[in-house]
Amino acid sequence: MNGRFPKVVDAAPIGPSLGPASRRVPGFSRIRHAFAQTFARAVARRAETAKVLSEVLHG
């Protein structure tokens, strides 16, 4: 990750919603972590795109 959005991973509402079942699955936290990183990257990319678009549109 580019390090500009470190809080997005922490804020991703993935784990708690699944509850205790997630703890019983071996390797699930690794999968969740990978998903959270992917999610954060997508959010960062979207934010970057929006910023560039607004700069282009508004000069």
Give the C-alpha Rg: 15 Å
| N-end to C-end Cα span | 28 Å
* Count of extended strands: 0
Helix and strand content put the structural class at: mainly alpha
Helical content band: over 70%
Query: How many helix segments?
Result: 4
| Residue windows where pLDDT falls under 50 for at least 5 positions | 8-12
Largest sheet: none
Residue fraction in strands: under 5%
Question: Rough shape?
Answer: rod-shaped
**What is the residue-averaged pLDDT?**
73
Order of helices and strands: HHHH
Word description of this protein:
The chain is mainly α and 59 residues long. It has a domain at 26-58. The chain contains 4 helices and no strands. The chain has helices spanning 6-11, 15-18, 21-24, 28-58. Residues 8-12 have low confidence and may be disordered.
Summarize the helices and strands and which ones pair or pack.
Elements: H1 6-11, H2 15-18, H3 21-24, H4 28-58
Summarize the entry for a quick read.
The chain is mainly α and 59 residues long. The chain contains four helices and no strands.
List keywords for this structure.
59 residues, mainly alpha, rod-shaped
